[in-house]
Each structure stands twice: as C-alpha cells, then as structure tokens.
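Lest this sound abstract, we think one record worth quoting, the chain in one-letter code, the fold tokenised, each line plainly labelled:

>
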Amino acid sequence: MSLIQRISRDRVTPETTRPDPAKVLAGDPVHTTWNLVEDDGLYCGLWQSTPGKWRVAYVEWEYVHILQGHSILTAADGTETRLRAGDSFVIRPGFEGTWEVVETTLKDYVIRT
C-alpha cells in the first residue's frame, strides 16, 4: 500500500444522502460523498451538493477547498462567507448557521472529530 493517495473519485463508491428534512430551508439538496480516508476520527475525501439551503452546527474541525461551484456559509450572527472555486478555509467546532449551495458545489475536505 502506498503512503501517498491522490484525491480522486476514481474507483471510490460514492454515498448519496440528503440533509435532515427538519434542517432544510430551501430546495432539495442532494449530497454525494466520496470518502477516501476514515481512520480514528479523521475523514478525507470529496463532497458534492446540488443547490439548496440547510442549517448546520459543527462539532468537528473541517478544512475545505472548493473545486467547483458557489456556496454561501452564513453564521448565526448573519455574517456571510461566499465560497467559490479556488477558495480554502477552516470551519471550527461551534460554528452554527446555514450552508447554501447556489451552484452545485464540489469540495475536498479533511475532517477531525
């Protein structure tokens, strides 16, 4: 087994989900996740969502790099962060607000629980 792994959807079976209906505020977002690493609270892979808006509450730490699309993270205090292809950011535990996918968004991520 190689100790280097390319971040790619090739040869990975995706998981398709939707947010909890009680959290959805607009649309019918469909999430597709290609998990590449699941190891002792560390997760890494690719995630894609179709347009929609839902409430989020982070208890984990997440690094994100947007590959395609346009999303808006809005904090509980109303502060908006627009996310577009090429943007990288960290979401820390305790963030609460909404995630809105304006244009189908593809990101790679690393999550630590």
